[in-house]
Amino acid sequence: MAARAARELDDGFFVNLGIGIPTLVANYIDDDIDVTLQSENGILGLGPFPTEDAVDADIINAGKQTITELRRTAYVSSADSFAMIRGGHIDASILGAMEVSQGGDLSNWMVPGKMVKGPGGAMDLVAGVKRIIVLMDHVDKAGNPKFRRENTLPYTGRNVVDMIVTDLAVFERENRSSPFRLIELAPGVTAQDVAERTEAEYLA
Amino acid sequence: MVQKIYSDAASALDGLLFDGMTIVAGGFGLCGIPETLIDGILAAGTTGITAISNNAGVDDFGLGLLLRRRQIKKMISSYVGENKEFERQYLSGELELEFCPQGTLAERIRAGGAGIPGFYTATGVGTLVAEGKELKEFGGMTYVLETGLTADLALVKAWRADRYGNLVFRKSARNFNPMAATAGKVTIAEVEEFVDELDPDHIHTPSIYVQRLIAATRNEKRIERRTTSAVPA
Predict the structure, then answer these.
(1) Is residue B79 situated within a structural domain?
(2) Which residue windows are coiled coil (chain A) (predicted)?
(3) Bridging pattern class, strands B184-194 and B212-215
Protein backbone atom coordinates (compact mmCIF):
# COMPACT_ATOMS: atom_id res chain seq x y z
CA MET A 1 0.00 0.00 0.00
CA ALA A 2 2.78 2.37 0.96
CA ALA A 3 4.62 1.61 -2.28
CA ARG A 4 1.48 2.28 -4.33
CA ALA A 5 0.81 5.56 -2.57
CA ALA A 6 4.41 6.66 -3.15
CA ARG A 7 3.76 6.48 -6.92
CA GLU A 8 1.30 9.38 -6.53
CA LEU A 9 4.08 11.77 -5.56
CA ASP A 10 5.57 13.92 -8.31
CA ASP A 11 8.93 15.62 -8.66
CA GLY A 12 9.02 18.85 -6.66
CA PHE A 13 6.12 17.95 -4.38
CA PHE A 14 5.83 19.08 -0.77
CA VAL A 15 4.17 16.24 1.14
CA ASN A 16 2.89 15.59 4.65
CA LEU A 17 2.78 11.94 5.71
CA GLY A 18 0.43 10.87 8.51
CA ILE A 19 1.44 8.81 11.51
CA GLY A 20 1.69 5.00 11.20
CA ILE A 21 1.67 3.21 7.84
CA PRO A 22 1.69 6.50 5.84
CA THR A 23 5.12 7.25 7.37
CA LEU A 24 6.43 4.18 5.48
CA VAL A 25 5.64 5.84 2.16
CA ALA A 26 8.94 7.72 2.52
CA ASN A 27 10.81 4.42 2.01
CA TYR A 28 9.26 3.93 -1.43
CA ILE A 29 9.78 7.32 -3.04
CA ASP A 30 11.74 6.84 -6.26
CA ASP A 31 15.32 8.15 -6.13
CA ASP A 32 14.68 10.12 -9.35
CA ILE A 33 11.86 12.07 -7.69
CA ASP A 34 12.63 15.04 -5.46
CA VAL A 35 10.02 15.22 -2.71
CA THR A 36 10.22 17.47 0.35
CA LEU A 37 8.49 15.99 3.39
CA GLN A 38 6.80 18.33 5.86
CA SER A 39 6.01 17.51 9.45
CA GLU A 40 3.33 19.58 11.18
CA ASN A 41 5.32 20.08 14.38
CA GLY A 42 7.48 22.48 12.39
CA ILE A 43 9.91 20.82 9.96
CA LEU A 44 10.07 21.33 6.22
CA GLY A 45 12.54 18.80 4.82
CA LEU A 46 12.45 15.66 6.97
CA GLY A 47 15.41 13.32 6.84
CA PRO A 48 15.50 9.58 7.59
CA PHE A 49 15.73 8.04 11.08
CA PRO A 50 19.09 8.68 12.77
CA THR A 51 21.73 6.13 13.64
CA GLU A 52 21.90 5.48 17.39
CA ASP A 53 24.74 7.95 17.93
CA ALA A 54 23.00 10.71 15.95
CA VAL A 55 19.76 10.77 18.00
CA ASP A 56 18.80 14.34 18.92
CA ALA A 57 15.82 14.89 21.25
CA ASP A 58 15.16 18.26 19.60
CA ILE A 59 14.60 16.68 16.17
CA ILE A 60 11.35 14.73 16.14
CA ASN A 61 8.57 14.28 13.61
CA ALA A 62 4.83 14.63 14.25
CA GLY A 63 4.72 10.99 15.39
CA LYS A 64 7.29 11.94 18.06
CA GLN A 65 9.87 9.70 16.39
CA THR A 66 13.48 10.82 16.31
CA ILE A 67 14.54 11.82 12.81
CA THR A 68 17.31 13.74 11.05
CA GLU A 69 17.59 17.00 9.16
CA LEU A 70 18.73 17.49 5.57
CA ARG A 71 20.68 20.27 3.89
CA ARG A 72 17.38 21.74 2.73
CA THR A 73 15.68 21.56 6.13
CA ALA A 74 13.87 24.58 7.56
CA TYR A 75 12.45 24.63 11.07
CA VAL A 76 9.38 26.76 11.67
CA SER A 77 6.90 27.41 14.49
CA SER A 78 3.64 25.48 14.71
CA ALA A 79 1.75 28.56 13.46
CA ASP A 80 4.00 28.83 10.40
CA SER A 81 3.79 25.09 9.82
CA PHE A 82 0.00 25.22 9.71
CA ALA A 83 0.11 28.30 7.50
CA MET A 84 1.82 26.02 4.96
CA ILE A 85 -0.88 23.39 5.49
CA ARG A 86 -3.99 25.54 5.80
CA GLY A 87 -2.79 27.98 3.17
CA GLY A 88 -2.77 25.34 0.44
CA HIS A 89 1.02 25.19 0.01
CA ILE A 90 1.34 21.43 0.58
CA ASP A 91 0.78 19.35 -2.56
CA ALA A 92 -0.35 16.09 -0.98
CA SER A 93 -1.01 14.41 2.33
CA ILE A 94 -1.20 10.66 2.86
CA LEU A 95 -3.31 9.74 5.89
CA GLY A 96 -4.73 6.68 7.61
CA ALA A 97 -8.48 6.26 8.01
CA MET A 98 -11.08 4.41 10.05
CA GLU A 99 -13.80 5.12 7.45
CA VAL A 100 -14.17 6.95 4.14
CA SER A 101 -17.57 7.65 2.58
CA GLN A 102 -18.44 7.58 -1.13
CA GLY A 103 -18.72 11.36 -0.90
CA GLY A 104 -15.12 11.63 0.30
CA ASP A 105 -15.84 12.22 4.00
CA LEU A 106 -13.00 11.09 6.26
CA SER A 107 -13.24 9.74 9.81
CA ASN A 108 -9.95 8.95 11.51
CA TRP A 109 -9.80 10.56 14.95
CA MET A 110 -12.52 9.36 17.27
CA VAL A 111 -14.50 6.29 18.30
CA PRO A 112 -17.34 7.40 20.64
CA GLY A 113 -17.33 5.53 23.93
CA LYS A 114 -13.61 4.87 23.71
CA MET A 115 -10.84 7.10 25.00
CA VAL A 116 -10.38 9.87 22.49
CA LYS A 117 -6.84 11.03 21.89
CA GLY A 118 -7.72 14.08 19.82
CA PRO A 119 -7.57 15.21 16.21
CA GLY A 120 -3.96 16.45 16.27
CA GLY A 121 -3.28 18.05 12.90
CA ALA A 122 -5.52 15.81 10.78
CA MET A 123 -8.43 18.27 10.51
CA ASP A 124 -6.09 21.04 9.37
CA LEU A 125 -4.43 18.77 6.82
CA VAL A 126 -7.68 17.70 5.17
CA ALA A 127 -8.93 21.29 5.16
CA GLY A 128 -5.89 22.78 3.47
CA VAL A 129 -3.74 20.28 1.56
CA LYS A 130 -4.38 20.15 -2.20
CA ARG A 131 -4.71 16.37 -2.55
CA ILE A 132 -5.66 13.90 0.19
CA ILE A 133 -4.70 10.25 -0.29
CA VAL A 134 -6.04 7.74 2.23
CA LEU A 135 -4.13 4.57 3.00
CA MET A 136 -6.20 1.96 4.83
CA ASP A 137 -7.10 -1.72 5.10
CA HIS A 138 -10.12 -2.45 2.96
CA VAL A 139 -12.10 -3.91 5.88
CA ASP A 140 -11.76 -3.47 9.64
CA LYS A 141 -10.70 -6.19 12.10
CA ALA A 142 -14.30 -7.46 12.29
CA GLY A 143 -14.46 -7.66 8.48
CA ASN A 144 -16.70 -4.60 8.00
CA PRO A 145 -16.15 -2.44 4.92
CA LYS A 146 -14.32 0.82 5.65
CA PHE A 147 -15.28 2.44 2.32
CA ARG A 148 -18.92 3.20 3.06
CA ARG A 149 -22.05 4.95 1.82
CA GLU A 150 -21.94 7.10 4.92
CA ASN A 151 -19.50 7.13 7.80
CA THR A 152 -20.67 5.97 11.22
CA LEU A 153 -17.84 7.68 13.11
CA PRO A 154 -17.34 11.42 13.77
CA TYR A 155 -15.85 13.27 10.84
CA THR A 156 -12.33 14.59 10.47
CA GLY A 157 -13.46 16.44 7.34
CA ARG A 158 -16.33 16.43 4.84
CA ASN A 159 -15.72 15.77 1.13
CA VAL A 160 -11.94 15.90 1.47
CA VAL A 161 -10.59 12.57 0.12
CA ASP A 162 -9.28 12.36 -3.46
CA MET A 163 -7.84 8.84 -3.57
CA ILE A 164 -8.13 5.66 -1.51
CA VAL A 165 -5.39 3.01 -1.52
CA THR A 166 -6.31 -0.23 0.28
CA ASP A 167 -4.77 -3.69 0.46
CA LEU A 168 -7.25 -4.75 -2.27
CA ALA A 169 -7.72 -1.82 -4.62
CA VAL A 170 -7.21 1.81 -5.55
CA PHE A 171 -10.11 4.25 -5.98
CA GLU A 172 -9.76 7.73 -7.37
CA ARG A 173 -12.03 10.59 -8.35
CA GLU A 174 -11.51 13.39 -10.84
CA ASN A 175 -12.58 16.16 -8.53
CA ARG A 176 -14.55 16.67 -5.36
CA SER A 177 -17.89 16.67 -7.21
CA SER A 178 -17.32 13.32 -8.94
CA PRO A 179 -17.81 9.78 -7.67
CA PHE A 180 -14.89 7.47 -6.93
CA ARG A 181 -13.82 5.04 -9.64
CA LEU A 182 -12.10 1.70 -9.10
CA ILE A 183 -8.86 2.16 -11.03
CA GLU A 184 -6.63 -0.72 -9.86
CA LEU A 185 -6.79 -4.12 -8.24
CA ALA A 186 -4.08 -5.57 -6.03
CA PRO A 187 -2.37 -8.69 -7.46
CA GLY A 188 -4.66 -11.71 -7.25
CA VAL A 189 -7.72 -9.63 -6.29
CA THR A 190 -10.82 -9.56 -8.52
CA ALA A 191 -13.36 -6.78 -9.01
CA GLN A 192 -15.87 -9.16 -7.45
CA ASP A 193 -13.70 -9.48 -4.30
CA VAL A 194 -13.65 -5.70 -3.99
CA ALA A 195 -17.40 -5.33 -4.58
CA GLU A 196 -18.16 -7.88 -1.86
CA ARG A 197 -16.07 -5.98 0.67
CA THR A 198 -17.19 -2.45 -0.19
CA GLU A 199 -20.34 -0.70 0.97
CA ALA A 200 -19.78 2.53 -0.97
CA GLU A 201 -21.07 3.00 -4.50
CA TYR A 202 -18.30 3.55 -7.02
CA LEU A 203 -17.74 3.44 -10.75
CA ALA A 204 -16.21 0.18 -11.88
CA MET B 1 18.24 48.13 33.02
CA VAL B 2 15.44 45.85 34.16
CA GLN B 3 16.84 42.66 35.60
CA LYS B 4 14.99 39.79 33.98
CA ILE B 5 17.16 36.87 35.02
CA TYR B 6 15.90 35.10 38.14
CA SER B 7 17.87 32.63 40.19
CA ASP B 8 15.46 29.70 39.93
CA ALA B 9 11.91 28.62 39.01
CA ALA B 10 10.47 29.44 42.46
CA SER B 11 11.67 33.05 42.37
CA ALA B 12 10.63 33.52 38.73
CA LEU B 13 7.13 32.22 39.51
CA ASP B 14 6.83 34.23 42.73
CA GLY B 15 3.74 36.45 42.80
CA LEU B 16 2.36 35.10 39.53
CA LEU B 17 0.56 31.94 40.58
CA PHE B 18 -3.02 31.68 41.82
CA ASP B 19 -5.64 28.95 41.93
CA GLY B 20 -7.91 28.92 38.87
CA MET B 21 -5.37 30.61 36.60
CA THR B 22 -4.78 29.95 32.90
CA ILE B 23 -1.32 28.89 31.76
CA VAL B 24 -0.14 28.48 28.17
CA ALA B 25 2.92 26.27 27.66
CA GLY B 26 5.11 25.64 24.64
CA GLY B 27 6.10 22.17 23.51
CA PHE B 28 5.05 19.39 21.15
CA GLY B 29 4.86 15.98 22.80
CA LEU B 30 7.82 16.05 25.16
CA CYS B 31 9.91 18.18 22.79
CA GLY B 32 10.62 21.79 23.79
CA ILE B 33 8.62 21.71 27.02
CA PRO B 34 9.43 23.99 29.98
CA GLU B 35 10.56 21.17 32.29
CA THR B 36 12.12 23.36 34.95
CA LEU B 37 9.11 25.69 35.27
CA ILE B 38 6.66 22.77 35.38
CA ASP B 39 8.64 21.49 38.38
CA GLY B 40 8.25 24.96 39.91
CA ILE B 41 4.46 24.88 39.56
CA LEU B 42 4.43 21.36 40.93
CA ALA B 43 6.31 22.60 44.00
CA ALA B 44 4.04 25.65 44.39
CA GLY B 45 0.95 23.42 44.43
CA THR B 46 -1.26 25.81 42.42
CA THR B 47 -4.62 24.18 41.62
CA GLY B 48 -7.58 24.66 39.27
CA ILE B 49 -5.25 25.44 36.37
CA THR B 50 -6.56 25.72 32.82
CA ALA B 51 -3.62 24.56 30.70
CA ILE B 52 -3.33 25.51 27.04
CA SER B 53 -0.84 23.10 25.52
CA ASN B 54 -0.78 20.96 22.39
CA ASN B 55 -0.27 17.80 24.48
CA ALA B 56 -0.63 16.73 28.10
CA GLY B 57 2.76 15.10 28.63
CA VAL B 58 3.03 11.49 29.75
CA ASP B 59 2.21 10.05 33.18
CA ASP B 60 5.49 10.99 34.80
CA PHE B 61 6.83 13.80 32.62
CA GLY B 62 5.77 17.21 31.36
CA LEU B 63 2.27 18.41 32.21
CA GLY B 64 1.49 14.82 33.22
CA LEU B 65 3.24 15.64 36.51
CA LEU B 66 0.71 18.40 37.23
CA LEU B 67 -2.19 16.17 36.17
CA ARG B 68 -1.06 13.44 38.54
CA ARG B 69 -1.12 15.95 41.41
CA ARG B 70 -4.59 17.11 40.32
CA GLN B 71 -3.40 20.67 39.76
CA ILE B 72 -5.02 20.96 36.31
CA LYS B 73 -8.79 21.47 36.00
CA LYS B 74 -9.02 21.86 32.25
CA MET B 75 -6.83 21.18 29.20
CA ILE B 76 -7.12 22.91 25.82
CA SER B 77 -5.16 20.57 23.53
CA SER B 78 -5.09 18.91 20.13
CA TYR B 79 -3.83 15.48 21.17
CA VAL B 80 -3.69 13.84 24.59
CA GLY B 81 -2.80 10.21 23.92
CA GLU B 82 0.01 8.44 25.80
CA ASN B 83 -1.24 9.45 29.25
CA LYS B 84 -3.11 6.92 31.43
CA GLU B 85 -3.73 9.27 34.35
CA PHE B 86 -5.17 11.83 31.95
CA GLU B 87 -7.51 9.16 30.59
CA ARG B 88 -8.66 8.13 34.07
CA GLN B 89 -9.40 11.70 35.20
CA TYR B 90 -11.14 12.56 31.95
CA LEU B 91 -13.36 9.47 31.91
CA SER B 92 -14.32 9.99 35.58
CA GLY B 93 -15.27 13.61 34.84
CA GLU B 94 -12.58 15.13 37.08
CA LEU B 95 -10.83 16.83 34.18
CA GLU B 96 -12.35 19.07 31.52
CA LEU B 97 -11.01 18.87 28.00
CA GLU B 98 -11.43 21.18 25.02
CA PHE B 99 -10.15 19.59 21.84
CA CYS B 100 -8.81 21.98 19.29
CA PRO B 101 -7.27 20.99 15.93
CA GLN B 102 -3.53 21.52 16.11
CA GLY B 103 -3.28 24.27 13.51
CA THR B 104 -6.29 26.03 14.96
CA LEU B 105 -4.69 25.85 18.42
CA ALA B 106 -1.44 27.34 17.14
CA GLU B 107 -3.34 30.11 15.38
CA ARG B 108 -5.61 30.79 18.39
CA ILE B 109 -2.54 31.33 20.57
CA ARG B 110 -0.84 33.41 17.87
CA ALA B 111 -4.00 35.49 17.39
CA GLY B 112 -4.48 35.98 21.12
CA GLY B 113 -0.93 37.27 21.46
CA ALA B 114 -1.38 39.53 18.43
CA GLY B 115 -4.57 41.15 19.72
CA ILE B 116 -6.89 39.34 17.34
CA PRO B 117 -10.00 38.09 19.18
CA GLY B 118 -11.20 35.71 16.48
CA PHE B 119 -10.59 34.41 12.96
CA TYR B 120 -12.28 32.14 10.41
CA THR B 121 -10.79 28.85 9.29
CA ALA B 122 -11.93 25.93 7.12
CA THR B 123 -10.40 23.49 9.61
CA GLY B 124 -13.06 21.47 11.41
CA VAL B 125 -16.06 22.67 9.39
CA GLY B 126 -18.68 19.91 9.37
CA THR B 127 -17.12 18.15 12.38
CA LEU B 128 -17.70 18.05 16.14
CA VAL B 129 -15.15 20.80 16.80
CA ALA B 130 -17.26 23.33 14.85
CA GLU B 131 -20.50 22.55 16.69
CA GLY B 132 -22.09 25.62 18.25
CA LYS B 133 -19.63 27.97 16.52
CA GLU B 134 -20.48 30.68 14.00
CA LEU B 135 -20.07 29.74 10.33
CA LYS B 136 -19.48 32.18 7.51
CA GLU B 137 -19.14 31.92 3.74
CA PHE B 138 -16.18 33.45 1.91
CA GLY B 139 -15.96 32.92 -1.86
CA GLY B 140 -18.40 30.02 -1.75
CA MET B 141 -16.50 28.14 0.98
CA THR B 142 -17.63 27.70 4.59
CA TYR B 143 -15.41 28.73 7.47
CA VAL B 144 -15.81 28.52 11.25
CA LEU B 145 -15.12 31.28 13.75
CA GLU B 146 -12.39 30.41 16.25
CA THR B 147 -11.35 32.67 19.12
CA GLY B 148 -7.92 33.91 20.12
CA LEU B 149 -6.40 32.57 23.34
CA THR B 150 -4.46 34.43 26.01
CA ALA B 151 -3.27 33.30 29.42
CA ASP B 152 -2.31 34.69 32.82
CA LEU B 153 1.10 33.12 32.42
CA ALA B 154 3.13 31.73 29.52
CA LEU B 155 5.91 29.21 30.03
CA VAL B 156 8.42 28.60 27.27
CA LYS B 157 11.62 26.67 26.75
CA ALA B 158 14.35 28.37 24.74
CA TRP B 159 17.73 27.12 23.63
CA ARG B 160 19.61 30.42 23.85
CA ALA B 161 18.82 33.83 25.25
CA ASP B 162 20.59 37.08 25.96
CA ARG B 163 20.01 38.98 29.21
CA TYR B 164 17.38 41.16 27.51
CA GLY B 165 15.20 38.11 26.90
CA ASN B 166 15.66 37.75 23.16
CA LEU B 167 15.14 34.04 22.48
CA VAL B 168 16.32 31.45 20.02
CA PHE B 169 14.73 28.00 19.92
CA ARG B 170 16.44 24.86 18.71
CA LYS B 171 15.24 22.77 15.75
CA SER B 172 11.81 21.16 16.23
CA ALA B 173 11.78 22.23 19.91
CA ARG B 174 10.54 25.59 18.59
CA ASN B 175 6.98 24.33 17.85
CA PHE B 176 4.41 26.19 20.01
CA ASN B 177 6.97 28.19 22.02
CA PRO B 178 7.04 31.41 19.94
CA MET B 179 3.24 31.74 19.99
CA ALA B 180 2.99 30.86 23.68
CA ALA B 181 5.52 33.58 24.47
CA THR B 182 3.24 36.23 22.96
CA ALA B 183 0.04 35.08 24.67
CA GLY B 184 0.89 35.41 28.37
CA LYS B 185 0.22 38.48 30.52
CA VAL B 186 3.59 37.47 31.90
CA THR B 187 5.98 35.18 30.03
CA ILE B 188 8.77 33.24 31.67
CA ALA B 189 11.42 31.58 29.53
CA GLU B 190 13.68 28.84 30.79
CA VAL B 191 16.87 28.86 28.83
CA GLU B 192 19.43 26.16 28.15
CA GLU B 193 22.24 28.62 27.57
CA PHE B 194 22.66 32.35 28.18
CA VAL B 195 24.90 34.14 25.71
CA ASP B 196 26.31 37.67 25.65
CA GLU B 197 25.10 38.41 22.19
CA LEU B 198 22.65 37.03 19.65
CA ASP B 199 22.58 37.82 15.96
CA PRO B 200 19.66 40.30 15.68
CA ASP B 201 18.68 38.66 12.40
CA HIS B 202 18.35 35.25 14.03
CA ILE B 203 16.08 35.97 16.98
CA HIS B 204 12.85 33.94 17.02
CA THR B 205 11.15 35.68 19.95
CA PRO B 206 12.10 39.32 20.68
CA SER B 207 12.53 40.45 24.27
CA ILE B 208 9.31 42.48 24.40
CA TYR B 209 7.38 39.23 24.96
CA VAL B 210 9.61 37.90 27.74
CA GLN B 211 9.37 39.33 31.25
CA ARG B 212 11.35 36.79 33.27
CA LEU B 213 14.18 34.36 32.52
CA ILE B 214 15.80 31.46 34.31
CA ALA B 215 18.55 29.06 33.47
CA ALA B 216 16.89 25.70 32.79
CA THR B 217 18.13 23.27 35.42
CA ARG B 218 16.13 20.36 34.07
CA ASN B 219 16.97 19.47 30.47
CA GLU B 220 16.10 15.81 30.48
CA LYS B 221 14.49 16.09 27.02
CA ARG B 222 12.91 12.71 27.26
CA ILE B 223 12.31 11.01 23.88
CA GLU B 224 8.87 9.50 23.35
CA ARG B 225 9.72 7.29 20.38
CA ARG B 226 13.40 6.68 19.93
CA THR B 227 13.48 5.45 16.33
CA THR B 228 16.83 4.65 14.74
CA SER B 229 18.28 3.21 11.60
CA ALA B 230 21.35 1.04 11.12
CA VAL B 231 22.16 2.95 7.95
CA PRO B 232 23.77 6.40 8.29
CA ALA B 233 21.51 9.21 7.12
Answers:
(1) yes
(2) none
(3) parallel
